Amino acid sequence: MAASPEIFRAQPLENGDSSLPVVQRRVLPIYRLTTQFMKPDCEMLDIGTYDGFGVVELLNSAEGKVKHLTSIDIDPKMLARALSRSEINQELEQKGLHLVQMDARNLALPNNCIDLVTLIEVIGVGLENSDDPLADWRKILNESARVLKNDGTLIFTFRDILDSYPDETIEWDTFSANDGGLKGIPLNKGALEQDIGAIFEEVMWYGQILMERDGRVPGRIYYKEDNVIHTFWNSQAFIPIEKTQIDVWEKRLGANYFPLFWIGIAKYPRK
Q: 3-class DSSP state for residue 21?
């Protein structure tokens, strides 16, 4: 078996973020990645407020770049959970943050008013009760493009479907909700990629949590203690890796690496 990429050879020591649930630790670097795409006085739309964790991280990472952040959720219970966070209440008082109950498939926002849209842990997760997740994704995609300015950016995440991988022996059951909360309905990257390409002029891809062809996950640490096998995630596993870098590793190491999750950065909506 080829050696794993250098990024996974770091000691599995974690910083203060290690006390967070696994799912939050996984999305944390994604929220921090968004700062690269924030303009000064950024008008921002966050789709999928959930419990407000992402909203707080977006504000903390913004470094004063965000003028207004509107975070929406279709579920009023989720908005109530977010409002229970003291950090969010403080921002609401300062009028830089707006929490709104809204359906992302039909945004009550004017055209060309947003610089940056984040759609994190919604596709295949927030839409898991949908009758047709792919159709809903297309509605949200079109609505996001509509409200974005001509030079706007959409950042989204999803879990890829098994059919995208050449090795059909890989079993996704290994990464169910019982395995650190890495859940979500998998969607086909090829289908999503076609949709994105038809609506945005430029798309960059980042992979997260790489899996090898034989199903091994370099970022997953296994050890045996008292005849019991324990597992935990190396924090390095959650770092978003550019697809171009993944391709380099494949050529250099003679192995195939497939991200369990994809992060897409779509820019310049076609108007």
A: coil
In the block, tokens 């947003």 appear at 114
How are beta strands 148-159 and 114-119 bridged, if at all? parallel
Please report, for the domain that includes residue 169, its CATH number.
3.40.50.150
pLDDT tens digit string along 51-97? 999 999 998 888 889 999 999 999 999 999 999 998 898 888 777 89
Res. 262: pLDDT tops 80: yes
In a domain, 1, yes or no: no
In a domain, 18, yes or no: no
pTM: 0.85
145 vs 135: CA distance, rounded Å: 16
Domain that holds residue 67: 6-13+23-269
The number of domains in the chain is: 1
Handedness of CA 4, 246, 31, 163 (dihedral sign): negative
